[in-house]
Amino acid sequence: MYKYLLCWRYLRTRYIALASIISVMLGVATMIVVNSVMAGFSEKMRTRLHGVLADVIVESYDLDGFRNAQEVMARIRKVAGEDVEAMAATMETFGLLKWTVNGNAITRQVQIMGVEPEERAKTGDFAEFLFDEQGKQIPPSFHVTEKVRLNNPAGELLKEEEDGPFKDALMAQIDADVPDFGTIIGFSLGHMHYKGKDLCVAPPGTKVHLYYPKAGRSPEPGSDTFTVAGYFKSGMSEYDSTHVYVPLKRLQMLRLLGDGEGQGAVNQIQLKVRKGVDIDVLASNLQSAMEDLRPMYFKVSTWEQKQGPLLAAVAVEQSILNILLFFIIAVAGFGILAIFSMIVVEKTRDIGVLKALGASTSGVRGIFLGYGLSLGLVGSGVGMIGGLLFVRYINPIEKGLSVVTGRRVFDDSIYYFSEIPTRIEPHTVAWIVGGALMISIVASVWPAQRAAKLRPVQALRFE
After folding, report:
1. Residue 356's CB: how many other CB atoms inside 10 A?
2. Burial call 5-28: b when 16+ CB within 10 Å, e when fewer
3. Over the stretch 162-172, which tens digit does the pLDDT of each residue have?
């Protein structure tokens, strides 16, 4: 019983221990907040990456692709069976996008994606990322609506003079300025962030030029014009600033890869896999099947393998950050070690009296170990509560800090998040609190052992 009474007395009266409690508290709270925010960002990023990419992608090493897409799909069905819910053939190539804004030509390097929009929507979240100029979702289609066709100077004049003498001339101008084939461009391609706002530089109805390589032994440049029909906004700048979606058959024809019967070449097959299926095992089985079909020509990847370097970089960053932040708690551990060493020296006589009165070696050791555990419990407990509360109210806190500092702490234009994403993982909180307790106990072991080895006669003699 005396052990608990002494631990409680030291905890109430030794205010120097407050520094160790604060260090443990700050370390635990900081690690919980950082891990929750990192986990939130990671989850958002993985969700959006998975939405842009299909579960499994079967692609050719050759940019010109393969013409036997139906045969490849049949082989996939044979291997995967009911594990594959949907498939979509696509054609991907690099190119240039060019259009005019206020008389100035803008040219951007892009990734051209030839797709059948409705089929592509079945293999991922493609349809959820399609928006118009007002931020409203649009159906997965390249159809140039009448509203889009009239969204230009000639169209505005036509609205004012529907039965005027210049109607035919205006209609001819609209036909010349608005190609029949629509395209969906990345949100960052069609918008420019300026003074905290997204300014549209390629509104729906804009005529854009695409330049791309044609197929052949000596590729030649090709070009065509399209009408902006909408925007692709996934929230990942890597895609929103480069992706341009066009009709698959149109791209096949332009690249000299179409046969006029809808059996043109493609270089990717996107797969949506049934939930619960191990996509890594499925990808490995498909790779073997593709090797039998055409050796050293196909590459089968999961969405995680396609984005392996990015996901690995985020994981490494989070691990390194955790190690650095854990040093804060380690500093608290050294503080506990120093404080306990001072207490042992200061209380040498008291320890001698306790042992002379019958206190056991393990009992004296338990006093200091219990004291260390108490400091750890208080510090980690308060830190856990504080960290969880900070995570709960992190967005109001961010808004308050933005007002105080006069600048946005979290700029949603960079990440396309309306608020800071967070995710509290119970097992992460548990190992943070457990690690803090372990450090507190370990730091008190040496002073406790030193106090336990004191002999009553020697302790009283030197005092």
Report:
1. 13
2. ebbeebbeebeebeebbebbbbbb
3. 666 666 666 66
Name 135's bridge partners. none
Output b/e per residue, 386-399; b: 16+ Cβ within 10 A. bbbebbeebeeeee
pLDDT band at 158 (very low <50, low <70, confident <90, very high): low
pLDDT greater than 70 at residue 177:
yes
The neighbour count for residue 100, using CB atoms within 10 Å, is 13
List Cβ neighbours of 360 (8 Å cut-off, separation of 6 or more): none
Query: From its phi and psi, is residue 113 left (phi > 0), alpha (psi between -120 and 50) or beta?
Result: beta
> Residue 412: how many CB atoms within 10 A of its CB?
11
Q: Residue 281: beta bridge partners? A: none
Q: What is the pTM of this model?
A: 0.77
SS3 85: strand
pLDDT digits (tens, 9 = 90+) for 248-259: 999 999 998 877
- 97/223 Cα distance (integer angstroms): 10
| DSSP secondary structure string for all residues of 153-206 | HHHHHHHH-TTSTTHHHHHHHHHHHS-SSEEEEEHHHHEEEETTEEEESS-TT-
Place of tokens 């608005």: 178
CA angle centred on 166, ends 160 and 169, rounded to 5°: 115
Q: How many CB atoms lie within 10 A of CB 374?
A: 19
Do the Cβ atoms of 238 and 125 come closer than 8 Å? no
Closest by CA to 316, choosing from 23, 128, 38, is 38
* 3-state secondary structure at position 388: helix
CA 105 to chain centre: 34
Residues ≥6 apart with Cβ < 8 Å to 344: 351, 368, 447, 450, 451
